[in-house]
Amino acid sequence: MASLTKRTAILIICRTTNYGVQLLSPLFLVRILDVHAYGQYREFVLYAMIAASIITFSIPTSLIYFMPKFPQRERQGVTHSALFLLTTSLAGILVIFLGRDLIRSRTSYDFVYPLMMYVFFFVNLDFFESYALGKKRAFAVLLYSTTRIAARIVSIVVTAYITHDIMAVLKVMIAVEIVKCVLLAFIFRRHFTKSLDAALAREQLRFIVPLGSAEVIRYCNSELSKVVISVTMGVESLALYTIGSYQIPVINIIRSSVIDVIFPDMTLACDRDRLRLWQRANVVFCFMIIPIFAVFMYHARTVIDVLFTSQYLAAVPLFRIYLAMMLMQCFEMGTPLRAMNENRYFVLGSIISLAIDIGIIFALFRIVGFLIPAIAVIAGESAVLWYLGRKILRLYSVKLGGLLMWRKIFAIAASCLAACPLLFAGELLPLNAVGRAVVSSCVYLAAYMLIVRRLKIDEVDLMVARAGDGVRRILSLRT
Q1: Tell me: the pLDDT tens digits for 386-417?
Q2: Which among 137-151, 159-173, 283-297 has the top mean pLDDT?
Q3: Residue 331 zone, left/alpha/beta (φ > 0; ψ -120 to 50; rest)
Q4: pLDDT value, residue 257
Q5: Per-residue pLDDT at 51
Q6: Is 94 exposed, middle or buried (0-12, 13-18, 19+ CB in 10 A)?
Q7: Chain centroid offset of residue 358 CA
Q8: Domain residue limits, the chain
Q9: Rg of the chain (C-alpha set)
Q10: Going by fewer Cβ within 10 Å, which terminus of the chain is more open, N or C?
């Protein structure tokens, strides 16, 4: 568990850093571009990420599963992944080309050809992180992903500042992805092989197809709200909606970091140990996410005003709705099924979620308007949690009481509630809004840590101890 904790800590640091760097993009762009121009930029990113998600089809994820399981066939697995991505990317840009008139009729400007180029170079060979995680090299992920994100953001912000031209920004984005592809081709040049393994390729496809199908449906479902807003209300509303949902990466930093670290070990463990690892991971999610939820929920208006300027204050209610989804996403229900290669359940779960999402949007969008797509996303996510949770109970032969470490989770939630009055007390401080938010949040988090540490929760104590060891090592290097 100690080595898992160390790799998890590195990966959380990595993705927190990446999120911090990535957050700089909207922070600068909302100040460089007006709301309409920023909406046009987000419109391109929206279509690009949907296309990339469909084309990627969870192909890189298979390396995290197969590399620890079949280390002797590493080169074949890497080669198959590269060929799969090349095939799907060529098919994807062909579909974009054939649907170019439809895309142009639904968007505020013509970006079809930049979209084709960007998606092709964005997707191909983009499996270094999965490869490094499969090799349990979390530090390599830290270096690669931080450098990649920084290069992307700096190029976008500098170009926007100099030109104020969206098409110039898109060209620079494409150039950065071309450079990334060339570098990855150099890195993996000795990992490719001419001797393919048909049996392994079939195994990879059996893993990829259900998982990829579910991921595509899930991602399209999560982005459906933005598409609806963009098409029906325009790019300015899309800009507001994008800002309102910007806290979602905070959740993914923690969830994906922990899950990506423990997943290779879960694939090799027995059912009992596998479930135990996952249960302990969910305790970590609750420990780290619930207090963050409380802080951002209370100070939502200040966060939007300070980070994205007052012209985006209309996004505050949406921001709070998406924050509510944080609590649901503390309970990650997919990994126990993926570890058993039972990926088919994700497909039906995602279809259920999409159907609920579409149904709510069509029924209530004209009545409620701007906020209903976000509410629909939460309703769909709730249905998926319920469905996957039932499958875990059946496959692992446990009852509801044994699904999660409920006592520890309730103790963490109670600790957060006990410290919450300190957030309200912050309003009494003779400071401006930012000062009150910072001071009250720090005091709240400190009180929460004092309370939860007294409860002697193993997972919490281990995480804190490992974090302390890391800080001490860093300080010793400086001295």
Answers
A1: 999 999 999 898 999 989 999 999 999 999 99
A2: 159-173
A3: beta
A4: 63
A5: 94
A6: exposed
A7: 22
A8: 2-478
A9: 22
A10: C
